[in-house]
Each structure stands twice: as structure tokens, then as C-alpha cells.
Model the fold of this input.
Amino acid sequence: MKKLIYSLFTGFAVLLIVSCSSDDNNPVTPPEPGSIYLTSNPAGAQIWLNGTNTSLVTPDTVISVDEGVHTITLKLTDYNDTTFSVSVTAGELSIVTNIVMVTNIVKTLYGPVRIYETTGTTASEPSGLDLSSGMAYGVSSPDANLVDIYYSSNGFLVQSADLYPGLIRVTKFSVGSGNNIFDGVDSPNKNVGVWTNSISDTTSNYVFLYDHDGHYSKLKIVNMGGGVPGVPAWVEVQWYYNDTALDNRF
Done:
């Protein structure tokens, strides 16, 4: 009887050993990771995977990504974060291209708007400008309290409204280094650099403005004319108005 029990036990042990040996020789192979190729417009956005910064920027490829659905967030200065999901298949490359980044700079483009010199003009030839609305008003009209800057016959200067008798809105001017208001260059801070209260009507570079309400503008004189008997001088201006107070980005 003891021999029978021993034989059965020995057989079970051999079977167990063989079974374990068989499992060791055939381990479960984990799925091969995939990868994600990303581009954005504009390029240079940080790539975050599932809330973690990969230290990569677009365009680039995130490698060793587990199979499944993952969350990608693209981050870029002056743009809103852009988040979306990407499905990754083991051993394959997922391609996501030309993700359009949306700027978080809120600005309005106005003009060209024509304003006239203050002398020898009629009610239909306004001299003043409301930067926030893009409207031209006469400096002696009922809407004169809205005027930020005006075109003065005295020296032919575009200048701050408070320099005209009875008007109070103060605007500061800082001439920029370029002449293309679409170049993306930001305004200097109102407390940095040289700020004045006027510019010449022949100024060819754009000029940054800081108005009475704490808003920045980026303005350029794009055309001028008149200045002969019976035809008052005028300038046409175009500008970006930053809708967010104290935001100097353009």
C-alpha cells in the first residue's frame, strides 16, 4: 500500500515539474509598443502624453507607447492648449499631422481709417480716432469724449487726445523698429523704453500705443494726402487693438 501511494505521489511530482518546465519555455509575450508622429501649425508645441511632458516638440515622434487610447496635449506660448485622443496599435505608427493651434491673443484689426487735420475741415472730415471701436469722430463733435488720438494741424502730428483743449483721454506712443504690423512683434511695456505723446505724420514705422483704458494698439500710417488749398491734409491709419487690458502681445 505504501508503495502504491509513493508511486502515485512520484508520478504527480513528475507531471508538475514537466508542466512548470513547459510554462517556462513558453512565456507570454507582451504586445510590442507603438508610436505617435505629431505635427502642428505653428510648429514647436510641447507634446504631453497622458498628462506628462515628453520633452518633445512638434514635429516629432513619441515612441514606446502602449497599445490603446491615449490623451495628447499640445502646449505653445501665446496659444490655447490643444487636447485630443489618439488610438495606438501595437507595433504600428499612428500619424496625426497639422494640428492647428489657436492663439489666445484677442485682438481686432481696424482700418485703414482716414482722419483729417484739425484746421479747415468740416463735420464730415473727422480729426479724431477711437482706437477701441475703429470709429473716427470730430474733436469738437458730441462724441469727442471717445477720441484717443487726433491729427493736429499744429506741426502735422498724430497725437494724444488730451493735447486738444477740453479732451482728457491720454494715449502714449512708442515708435517700433519695423513697418509691418503683422510681424508678430509685441509692444514694449508702458513702463519700459521711450514713450511720447505724438508722432509725425511722416512716420514710416509702426507705433505702439497705450491708451486711457490700459489697452495696447499697434498702428501704422499707411497713406496720406491733401495739404493743398481747399483740400485739408489727411492720413489713413491701420492698427491692431488688443482687446485685453494690459496685454501687450501682438
Q: What stands out?
A: The chain has one helix and 17 strands. The longest strand covers residues 107-116. The two ends are 96 Å apart (CA to CA).
